[in-house]
Amino acid sequence: MATRPPPAAILRGEPGVHPPPDAPAYRATELRHPKQPLVVIPQSLTELTGPAFGHDAVGPLDHDLTRQHSGAPVGQRILVEGRVLDEGGRPVPHTLIEVWQANAAGRYAHTVDQWNAPLDGNFTGAGRTLTDAEGRYRFVTIRPGAYPWRNHANAWRPAHIHLSLFGQAFLTRLVTQMYFPGDPLLALDPIFNAIPDERARQRLIARFDLPTTEPAFALGYRFDLVLRGRDQTPMEA
Amino acid sequence: MAGLTPFQTVGPYLHLGLRAGLGPMTSPEAATPVVVQGRLFDGAGAGISDGVLEFWAAGFDGVGRVWTAADGSYRLETVLPPTWVDAAGVVHAPHFAVRVLGRGILTQYLTRVYFSGHPDNDRDPVLQTVPAHRRGTLVASPGAPSEYEFAIVVQGERETVFFDV
Predict the structure, then answer these.
(1) Confidence at residue B24, expressed as pLDDT on a 0 to 100 scale
(2) Is residue A55 annotated as part of the catalytic site, yes or no?
(3) What does the pLDDT look like over B107-151, one tens digit per residue?
(4) B26 touches chain A (CB under 8 A)
(5) Please, is A174 exposed, middle or buried when counting C-beta atoms within 10 Å of its C-beta (0-12, 13-18, 19+)?
(6) Which of A41, A65, A113 to mutate to test the interface with B (most CBs of B within 10 A)?
(7) How far apart are the first and last CA of chain A?
């Protein structure tokens, strides 16, 4: 049997950041949240390690959602750029980011999405990239539209892009959504507002940034992501 | 300190971005093929059709990511992780960490799957931490040769144990 020393512990983070499992305003949580208390367990090698993704995980155009078909998609072309950091402010290098989103009309290229906004044959709405050595990433896409859903009467999701990140351990994983500044639907959205802490909610709103904007090409948005970090306290020998 | 980014649900269109697979479920220290399969259930006993499960074991070459089907069923072809011993001499029985994501799940539910009948289960520190009457929810039962059945119940009777870790 192999003997394995553990890497440094992963911090538990501040309370109140993540939504609770039971958020009655988001009706689908009703039958999908555990009612038993979570069982606290120590972190072991299982939780303190994670997969490494090589450059073969990502194709050269996977970060550009506007160049996956023969023509250009309809919509406002945007750049989404930022950094992936841990709680200590250290960059998270070479980690996989997956994104997915609706098209400019608010329709997903997915069989489950059947509302009558048009599909765009030039837009699938899925991409992936790896952060660089400094934790930076960049996507080229179009601004997604808002869309109706059946959660309550006249319910509309604010425009958003889904993001999935791994970080460097099983416990650093994050799946979230990026929103756009000034969207009037944010105040009405039960998913966004399931986050208890106002400051934490604001972290999901990208910032328009003129220096990121490319002249005569695309509007630029900045969106940094912060994952759970490792405890930097030196371990006893 | 930078403030953590909050979780949001993967929603119903997760399959667009969270492609199944994500690297080979192989390990230099493991060679015995196993299949882990079962269903993901909600609090009404219905299968969750828009869920995604991710399986991880230390030292593996990839993450086992599987989607649930219309009836909540899933199937993962992998290899049995090895028993290992930590720096304190504690023996850890073969297991995968399992992450549950899906529509209606605002964050993630973390659990583990162990393998019924494995002799190291009785001294595994996590399995022994779980109250005895709920321990069975973490143990996959044998099916056909080299196949294991593992149901994940997010709410209700036989609710799977989820972890704070």
Answers:
(1) 86
(2) no
(3) 999 999 999 999 999 999 999 999 999 999 999 999 999 999 999
(4) no
(5) buried
(6) A41
(7) 23
Size of interface A-B (CB pairs under 8 A): 235
Q: Give the pLDDT confidence of A166-193 residue by residue, as tens digits.
A: 999 999 999 999 999 999 999 999 999 9
The pair of structure tokens assigned to A196 is 């208890």
By the 8 A CB rule, do B110 and B165 touch? yes
CA atoms of B43 and B13, how far apart (whole Å): 22
Active site residue A160: yes
Given a contact cutoff of 8 angstroms between Cβ atoms, the answer to whether A195 and A17 are in contact is: yes
B149 touches A: beta carbon within 8 Å:
no
Q: What is the pLDDT of residue A237?
A: 41
d(C-alpha A21, C-alpha B102), whole Å: 12
Q: Are B164 and A1 an interchain contact pair (Cβ–Cβ within 8 Å)? A: no
Annotation marks residue A162 as catalytic: yes
C-alpha pair distances (Å), A17 with each of A194, B4, B106: 10, 7, 12
Q: Which structure tokens are listed for B130? A: 């779980």
ipTM over 0.85: yes
A51, B60: Cβ pair inside 8 Å?
yes
Per residue in A209-233, pLDDT (tens digit) is 999 999 999 999 999 999 999 887 6
